[in-house]
Design goal:
With 262 residues, the protein is α/β, with parallel strands linked by helices. The protein folds into two domains: 207 residues, Rossmann fold (3-Layer(aba) Sandwich); 36 residues, no CATH class. The protein is 47% helix and 15% strand. It contains eight helices and seven strands, in the order E-H-E-H-E-H-E-H-E-H-E-H-H-H-E. The chain has a seven-stranded parallel beta sheet with strand order 3-2-1-4-5-6-7, with helices on both faces. Strand 2, helix 2 and strand 3 form a beta-alpha-beta unit. This is SDR family oxidoreductase. It comes from Kaustia mangrovi. Belongs to the short-chain dehydrogenases/reductases (SDR) family.
Length: 262
C-alpha cells in the first residue's frame, strides 16, 4: 500500500528515541520530511542523521523542552522554518513519575498538566490553521492504554492523558470538514526504555527479580510478548497517511490485546 507520505512535512514531539523516534523513522522511511524534537541535542542529531541516511525522506531536529515557557510556540516556529509548513503533527510527551492518585501535590499536578496536556493543545492550535487552509492535515496524539483501562501506580498518566481524549474527539468534529483527521494511538506494553524503567520500578517495589516482573506482565498479554517500536510506528504511519483519510475521532489501541475492555 502506498501511504502517500512522500513529500509530506511532519513534526513529531519527543522523538529522539522511544515511540516518538520510531514514528519519526517510519515517516522518513515513507518519504516524509520530518522534524524531530526533544531535550538532548546529541540524541537528536544522531537520530536525524540515521533517518536521513536511510531515506528516502529526511530528518531535521529542534532542541525543545516542553516544560519551558513558550516552548510550544518556539518549537512550532522552528519547525516551520525547517519544513515550510506542517502537514502532520504527532503529539507525544514523556510520562510522569509512577505513583498513586493521592501522592502528587497540587504543584506536581499543575507542572505535569502544562507539559503533557497544555503544550499538546497549544502546538496543535498553532499547526491547525495551515492544515485547514490546505484542506489536508493529520493530528495524531500518542497516549496510553491507561485512558481505557487505568494502569495501577500510573495515576498521573491515567488522569492527564484522559483529558486529551475528550479534547481530541471534540477537535476531530470541529476540523473534519477541512479534511483534517484527529486520532489517538494508545500503546500497551511496547518495549522501550520507558517500559524498562517501569519494570525496574515494579521489581524494586515488589522486591522481585525484574525477569519475574516481565514474565508476569507478558502473561497478561494475549500475544504473550511485548510489542516492538516498529509495530507501533507502522500503526502510526497508517493513521497519518493518505489512505486513512476517513479515520478520525478514534482511539486506536496497539497493545497485543492486553486491554480487557471491548
Amino acid at each position: 500500500m502506498d501511504l502517500e507520505l512522500t513529500g509530506k512535512r511532519a513534526l513529531v514531539l519527543a522523538s529522539s528515541q522511544g515511540l516518538g523516534g520510531g514514528i519519526a523513522a517510519a515517516l522518513a522511511a515513507e518519504g516524509a520530511h520530518v522534524v524531530i524534537s526533544g531535550r538532548s541535542e546529541a540524541k537528536l542529531a544522531a537520530a536525524a542523521k540515521a533517518m536521513t541516511e536511510k531515506g528516502p525522506g529526511r530528518a531535521d531536529y529542534v532542541v525543545c523542552d516542553l516544560s519551558a515557557p513558550n516552548a510550544a510556540k518556539d518549537l512550532h516556529d522552528a519547525a516551520m522554518d525547517k519544513l515550510g509548513g506542517i502537514d502532520i503533527l504527532v503529539n507525544n510527551t514523556g510520562g510522569p513519575p509512577p505513583g498513586t492518585a493521592t501522592q502528587p501535590t497540587p504543584d506536581q499536578w499543575r507542572a505535569q498538566f502544562e507539559t503533557m496536556v497544555l503544550s499538546v493543545m497549544e502546538i496543535t492550535n498553532l499547526c491547525l490553521p495551515g492544515m485547514r487552509e490546505r484542506k489536508w492535515g493529520r493530528v495524531l496524539t500518542v497516549a496510553s492504554s491507561g485512558v481505557v483501562q487505568p494502569i495501577p501506580t500510573l495515576a498521573m498518566s491515567n488522569t492527564l492523558r484522559s483529558a486529551l481524549v475528550g479534547w481530541s474527539k471534540t477537535l476531530s468534529i470541529e476540523v473534519g470538514a477541512d479534511n483534517v483527521t484527529v486520532n489517538m494511538l494508545l500503546p500497551g506494553r511496547i518495549h522501550t526504555e520507558r517500559v524498562d524503567q517501569l519494570d525496574e520500578a515494579a521489581a524494586k517495589r515488589q522486591d522481585k527479580p525484574i525477569e519475574d516482573v516481565r514474565a508476569a506482565s507478558r502473561a497478561t498479554i494475549p500475544m504473550g510478548r511485548y510489542g516492538t517500536v516498529e509495530e507501533f510506528a507502522a500503526t502510526a504511519a497508517f493513521l497519518v497517511s493518505g489512505p486513512a483519510s476517513y479515520v478520525t475521532g478514534t482511539l486506536v489501541r496497539c497493545d497485543g490485546g492486553a486491554t480487557k475492555g471491548i
